[in-house]
Amino acid sequence: MRPRSGSPAARRAAAAFGAAVGDRSARPDYRWIARLTGASPDSVADVVAEAEALVPMEIAIRRAHRATGRVGGFAQIRAPLELYAITRLQRPDTVVEVGVSSGVSSAHFLAALRRNRHGRLHSIDRPTFQRGPRLARNESPVSIPPGRSSGWAVPSRLRTRWDLRLGPSQRLLPRVIRELPPIGIFLHDDLHTPAHLAWELRTVRPRLAPAAVVLADNSRWTGRAFPRFAEREGVRWTARRGTDLWGLRLAA
Ligand SMILES: C[S@@+](CC[C@H](N)C(=O)[O-])C[C@H]1O[C@@H](n2cnc3c(N)ncnc32)[C@H](O)[C@@H]1O
Fold first, then answer.
1. Of 8, 51, 9, 2, nearest to 31 (Cα)?
2. Whose CA is nearest to atom 26 of ligand 1?
3. 222 CA to middle of ligand 1, Å?
4. Ligand 1, pocket-test mutation among 86, 104, 106, 142, most atoms within 8 A of CB
5. What contacts 241, CB < 8 A, 6 or more positions away?
6. I need a surface site. Which of 65, 102, 110, 137 has the fewest CB within 10 A?
7. Do residues 150 and 190 lie in contact, with contact meaning Cβ atoms separated by under 8 Å?
8. Is the CB of residue 238 less than 8 Å from the CB of residue 247?
9. Domains along the sequence of the chain with CATH
10. pLDDT digits (tens, 9 = 90+) for 169-203
11. Model pTM?
């Protein structure tokens, strides 16, 4: 079936993308993208086919990760191509993400916004720092190498559409979203507790656009917070295949 497998061009591009990323789970979940965006299978396949153009960026990000001791494929978001595709299909005015680290999710949002020639990404991160030049075994891969800052792996040419704020979500999120155009995509990827996710969802809800896509990573740690939000909105949530990255689409 088309939504499961995409077109031949999409499959070729996704294979090249997966090889560059070095992570088989980076292969796209076509159905999930279609469900979240309401796009047709052909439209989903068309934006996935653009992934070939992302290969140089993926190689650069992977190289930067390796140079700092991050060797095991993606330590961060496990569906970067989906973030790109969803952003291409939603064509949002505004994307908001909380949790940046090296900037894998940020880079994919920004690459799509650049191709859209429209929209801005607003990111919030309270960084934690790594002790030495290479990541030690007992250190979190989300910590920032010395001399770098949050989003350190994001290519500089993508940064023109980026507003990056450093500090805790609890303080910055209400401030950042106050003046923004309606948010078309929101990603939670910071402090994964049920109470914090529920608070972030409550906080952004009044600023979300109709049919906005809401995503939450590491949902195995956040209990019923995401399903409860979906219930209140009267919509279904779905997991990206093979991950605990969950998503939903608000009513139009
Ligand atoms: C899993 S990483 C983000 C990965 C990123 N989305 C990616 O795809 O590369 C989580 C980040 O959230 C930050 N963080 C943790 N608690 C936070 C909070 N309360 N407010 C803002 N950022 C926080 C962490 O320091 C870390 O940089």
1. 2
2. 101
3. 15
4. 142
5. 29, 31, 32
6. 137
7. no
8. yes
9. 76-249 (3.40.50.150)
10. 999 999 999 989 999 999 999 999 999 999 999 99
11. 0.96
